[in-house]
Amino acid sequence: MPSIPNVPAANRLLAALPAIDRQNLLAQCEPVELHFAEILYLAGAQIPHVYFPIGSFISLVTPVDGDTGLEVGLIGNEGILGITLILGVDIAPFQALVIGAGLALRISTPLFLQALERSRPFQLELNRYLYVSMRQLAQTAACNRFHLVEARLARWLLMSHDRAHADTFHVTHIFLAYILGVRRVGITKAALSLQERKLISYRRGNITILDRNGLEAAACGCYRTERETYESILGNE
């Protein structure tokens, strides 16, 4: 495995580590390009690698009735894919699906566990991130149950905008219907409403955020709650 000690830590969890801990961890990682719709884990399968997204982002999807699913979490450069390993569990609880193509740093599970054992700051950082992930999971469950499709879509677009680091990103109505657990006609209606209000534009599978402030006003309060939780637990380090 090639070492990459000079790769900048664009991942926020890595950037928060003391320099020596960060460099030791980076030396065990390899850069990989993640591709749209690539499946990194299947729910119930073993976790072979841990990923630190940099320019990519990943949807955590729980399977429902075999052929459908529902997104329960989203991971970008603020987080890590494979967090359950710190609990001593190497079985993936969700399907990990790439929805934002781009760069990530990857480390094998054995090397990750060795790095975790050697670094107390790394352990503390991931413990805090696990708490944030649990809050996101609970918030998403409540959002899916109580909020309307348009507000949920606006929230999802904001979360993706944060992780894409670009105003335009690729996603289809069919894909949105799948991860939000609604019918395609519901997504089409909600997206059309946001377009008519000039908050977004949609063309050939690409969504562009036109009015970030307006989109935040259209989203449910879950988006603000999740951001505040992350910043209060991990953002001031």
Labels describing this entry:
disordered N terminus, alpha+beta, 9 helices, globular, four-stranded antiparallel β-sheet, 22% strand, 237 residues, 10 strands
Explain what you see:
The chain has 237 residues and is of the alpha+beta class. It contains 9 helices and 10 strands. A 4-stranded antiparallel beta sheet has the order 2-6-4-5. The longest helix has 27 residues, at 120-146. Residues 1-9 have low confidence and may be disordered.
Strand and helix layout:
Elements: H1 12-15, H2 19-26, E1 30-34, E2 39-41, E3 49-53, E4 57-64, E5 68-75, E6 95-100, E7 102-108, H3 109-118, H4 120-146, H5 149-164, E8 168-170, H6 173-180, H7 184-196, E9 200-203, E10 206-209, H8 212-218, H9 222-233
Antiparallel strand pairs: 1-7, 2-6, 3-7, 4-5, 4-6, 8-10, 9-10
Helix pairs in contact: 4-9, 5-7, 5-8, 6-7
Give the overall form.
globular
Q: Can you list the strand order of the major beta sheet?
A: 2-6-4-5
Structural class: alpha+beta
Give unreliable regions as ranges: 1-9
* Global mean pLDDT: 92
Strand content: 15-25%
The share of residues in helices is 40-55%
Beta strands, count: 10
Radius of gyration: 18 Å
Gap between N and C termini: 30 Å
> What is the helix/strand order?
HHEEEEEEEHHHEHHEEHH
Biggest sheet descriptor: 4 strands, antiparallel
Oligomer: single chain
Number of contiguous helices: 9
Summarize the structure.
With 237 residues, this protein is α+β, with helices and mostly antiparallel strands. The chain has 9 helices and 10 strands.
